[in-house]
Amino acid sequence: MPLKQATLNGTKRKSSPPLDVSVKRRKSDEAGFKDSTSEEQYNIVDRQFYPPEMANERCAQYNTNRIQRPMQTLNKAQQETEGERDSIDVNHAVVHWFKCDLRTYDNKSLYLASKLAKSHGVPLICLHIVSPQDYKAHMTSPVRVDFALRTLEVLKDDLAKLDIPLYTEVVEERRAIPDRILDLCDGWGASHIFCNIEYEVDELRREALMTRKGLERGIAVTAVHDTCVVAPGELSSGTGGQYAVYSPWYRAWVAYIHRHPQQLQTFDTPSPNPASSRQDFKDIFDSNIPEAPENKRLTKEEKTRFRSMWPPGEHEAHERLDKFLKEKVEKYKDTRNFPAVNTTAMLSVHFSSGTLSARTAVARARDANTTNALDGGHVGIKGWISEIAWRDFYKHVLVNWPYVCMNKPFKPEYTNIRWEYDEALFQKWCTGQTGFPFIDAAMRQLNHMGYMHNRARMGVASFLAKDLLIDWRRGERYFMEHLIDGDFASNNGGWGFSASTGVDPQPYFRIFNPHLQSEKFDPDGEYIRKWVPELANVRGKAIHDPYERGSEREAKKNGYPKACVEHKASRARALARYKEGLGRDKA
User: Fold this and answer.
1) Domain 414-586 top-level CATH class
2) 188 is catalytic
3) N or C, which end of the chain is more exposed by having fewer CB within 10 Å?
4) Mean pLDDT across the chain, nearest whole number?
């Protein structure tokens, strides 16, 4: 997925000098950026929103603190304005701005907004902005947009039971969002607005800008940490920096929560509004959640299919969490890597849309354990908590190394690898026609469900980047354009791991053998037979490589293709290309 820099008021994956809203007019030869034809030619980045690739030298400036990180920009704006914001009197209403936190329970910003409103006897108003340009710039999948809009319907009903209105509006120009929100606050007589922090570059810069612009209009904008169990910046390595390896980071994460058990204290749902709110905001209560923008609409068949698979809302999220902890967690450690075995929680869509907080999930898992220690007790629960922690880890990485949100790998030196851009091979990967059954099953699951098992994600990503040597950013983008649970930090982190370009990656010389991965994680071929019906009648180990293991006739009869590449030769090519890019072929 094309990360990249972009206009300030959009969201996800951008850069450019702080508060620069004219970046799309930036010339490619400006200092700090370089021309990059492949990323434009092969649709890795949308030039409508993003400038040319950031130079490695500029990445180094972030790493050496010569450029202020966007999180620091927001922190500075909030800290420098705290006194002025605190001095603003509460007016006729308080506003909470929903983003990727579509829930009423355990929502810190919503709780704080409700608490302030109740203490002054004024109503709470909630709002959500639909931005077609943001969807396009972020490669947000139509199925994810549909899920969010359906969740807003549930959320609107839940809030209405508390006499709290939810206002939703489509804002066509992404850069107009901050001013439009402040205009709405003016119109409602609201002098305070709360929101939860999102950690992508433009979100951070946008909230920093809104903090200062709000003061000019007498509006206090307060952005709070909520997405992570432990906020970015709270953990540091022995040298005082951000951890770049998960294992020591996880130990620090667990130790921090043990020292600060209040981190797992959840926040109550908002208090009911005054009864008069029903009449005062009748137009909002009577309004409808908008349809998906034209650029992100599903077909009728897709709507029916996805809606049957993915019920929306936080009630569904809590039901899934309950079921997992009661019925599945017992087997989680032993079965979580097998796509054919339905023992995972299937909660990723709820984490990414915010219908369930990671804090709630970890707290509930701890309470179901035999100990309060997050790294002890039941092996299934302990293992699941460590998987949830990966989400925090990748967001911490994003905050500390923001250029991963700018179309750059965590390791900038990997920019020099010569990738292939074979369109025919890429399309075979996209459609599940590579001739490698496990890879094809995974891609077909993605295309049908908007979801893929995590073990399969690792396999297909490694296959694209190393067997096909195709630029990993094309795969990253494809995932975001099709996943219902697409989350920038986790998706980028996963692709960086598999392509060996990211934080805490598999070494570049570790290249998965897709046939062996298939045998290891789908030993009986159940996953393959479900998603590759051409091989439904193939038995035994031939299911993993039908043309080489005696089932060529069956595969050919049903139209299943031969392998598009030869793994041994592809592995050798990948090793040579990585060594060349890293300058190790001259050693």
Assistant:
1) mainly alpha
2) no
3) C
4) 91
